[in-house]
Design brief:
The protein has 75 residues and is an all-beta fold. Helices cover 0% and strands 21% of the residues. It is built from no helices and 4 strands. Strands 1-4 form a two-stranded antiparallel ribbon. The radius of gyration is 24 Å and the shape is flat.
Length: 75
């Protein structure tokens, strides 16, 4: 930890001993002005069917709408 914006760190030795692994993901959008005629597809939802046996009564259906709707390749 630091109390002076990273000027000094405590503890002064064995700092990695209590480290927890974490990942940071990010991205950015850069707008480019251009004219292109193309079909664009977006993934709006994901649906899943799970049937662990041949018996149709064991089937479970589920789905979720995606908030960010990523671009997807054409079908």
């Amino acid at each position: 930890w630091s109390t002076d914006s990273g000027g000094t760190w405590s503890p002064s030795s064995n700092r990695q001993r209590n480290d927890a692994r974490f990942y940071v993901y990010g991205g950015y959008v850069r707008r480019v002005a251009s004219t292109v005629n193309a079909d664009v597809h977006f993934l709006g939802s994901v649906n899943v069917m799970l049937q662990p046996t041949r018996d149709a009564d064991t089937r479970v259906d589920g789905g979720i709408a995606l908030l960010n709707q990523p671009q997807a390749p054409a079908p």
